Amino acid sequence: MTKNKDGGAIEHRSFGLGEVKVADSDGEMTFSGYGAVFGNVDSYGDVIAKGAFAETLKKAKSSGVWPAMLSQHGGMFGEDMTPIGVWTEMREDDTGLWVEGKFAPTPRGKEAYELLKMKPRSAFNGLSIGFRAKEWAVRTQPADPRRTLKAVELLEVSLVTFPANGKARVLSVKSEFNPRDIEDSLREAGLSRADSVKAVAVLKSMLLRDEAEDTTPRDEDETAKKSEAELTELAERIKALIA
Known about the structure:
- By secondary structure, this protein is an alpha+beta fold.
- It has two domains: 2-163, no CATH class; 177-242, no CATH class.
- Helix content is 34%, strand content 30%.
- It contains six helices and ten strands; from the N terminus they run E-E-E-E-E-H-E-E-E-H-E-E-H-H-H-H.
- The protein has helices at 54-63, 107-116, 168-176, 179-188, 193-213, 220-242; strands at residues 2-3, 11-16, 21-25, 28-37, 46-48, 68-71, 85-92, 96-103, 126-138, 147-160.
- Strands 1, 2, 5, 6, 9 and 10 form a six-stranded mixed β-sheet that branches. A four-stranded antiparallel β-sheet has the order 3-4-8-7.
- A hairpin with an 8-residue loop joins strand 9 and strand 10 (147-160).
- Helix 4 (179-188) packs across helix 5 and helix 5 (193-213) crosses helix 6.
């Protein structure tokens, strides 16, 4: 069994909408459905085990600080982290993580509600969780999942347009290239603040271009190990680009 005591990168896992129920009760725009499904092997080869959310749910209900409700995980680069509503209920059952929520009476909340209840099909295709892995078991046999996630820190649940495995890489870009984090790292690597801001803009355009051209699966663990060296190399490359 492996445990992570140092936070770790934010990961995303997406699931189809399934039987989402939409209602307008007393003027409140509510909906419910499964934010995660247990026993489902995802595109990374991971499985979420029943009980993985237990600690998060316990802390949320005791502290009053719940996972956020976002749209598209706040954008590809985390540029819009303003919630579109609040979760009013979260619980585990035999199927997965059941969530109930209500949209905020704001332009984005109302827009999300209207998109969700569209006919003949919802404009949103799934719910996706943002989390940090806290405890997991690694495979011991070739047929086993890469990881069986035993405990996770649930940070947010998002309505997403592309929940399919083929889009999982796009949704996970934010966890590896958060604009503020990379700006700080580039400054530590020797760039000025102004150059670091320019570097983030250059990096965004590079990522979007590469994402359109490359769909090769990545090993997240290997990526994390190389990140510090890659940032230093990137700093040198961007220095030359913006010189």
